[in-house]
Amino acid sequence: MSRAAHDQNLHLDDYFPYLLNRAGSRIAEAFSAETRRRGVSLQMWRVLAAVNDRGPLRMGDLSEATSIEGSTLTRLVQQMERKGLVERVRRDADQRVVRVVRTEAGRRIAAELIPLAMDYEARALEGLGAEDVARLKTLLRQVYANMDRQAR
Questions:
Q1: HEC string of 36-78?
Q2: Angle at CA 64, nearest 5°, toward 102 and 136?
Q3: What Rg do the C-alpha atoms of the chain give, in angstroms?
């Protein structure tokens, strides 16, 4: 089938990028209401979740963990510092290395949001068995890796 003929037969409700975006957008839209009530954006939540999970992170590692572009992340971390949610600290051994750490206020917000995030995940995956969930997550990591290679 030629590309032109294939393009004419695209069914949006069966098109993987659309389905993926649609599901992700619906989850993000719902969960954003929870983050906003706590005075943080969804991107700020991703930073807090990453630092909560992995500990202090260098900006590059934080960008990788959150999929937030470097310059956007720099502005975001500055906003979070002003809100008292994170701090940038330098290690004594190498003053060039800056790591983002959460503050007590950031820890409290993360602790409030983690159970809610887990609840949203459970709702999104309702009706799927444990093996299906594990396989879906593996497949989504593979899709991300495929597109990450494409972007480089």
A1: HHCCCCHHHHHHHHHHHHHCCEEHHHHHHHHCCCHHHHHHHHH
A2: 105
A3: 19
Residue-number span of the structural domain to which 86 is assigned? 3-126
Prediction pTM value: 0.86
**Total count of domains within the chain:** 1
What's the CATH number where 12 sits? 1.10.10.10
Q: What is the pLDDT of residues 73-132, one digit of tens each?
A: 999 999 999 999 999 998 767 667 889 999 999 999 999 999 999 999 999 999 999 999
Q: Does residue 139 belong to any structural domain of this protein?
A: no
User: What phi, psi does 15 have (nearest 5°)?
Assistant: -95, 115
Helix (H, G, I), strand (E, B) or coil at 88: strand
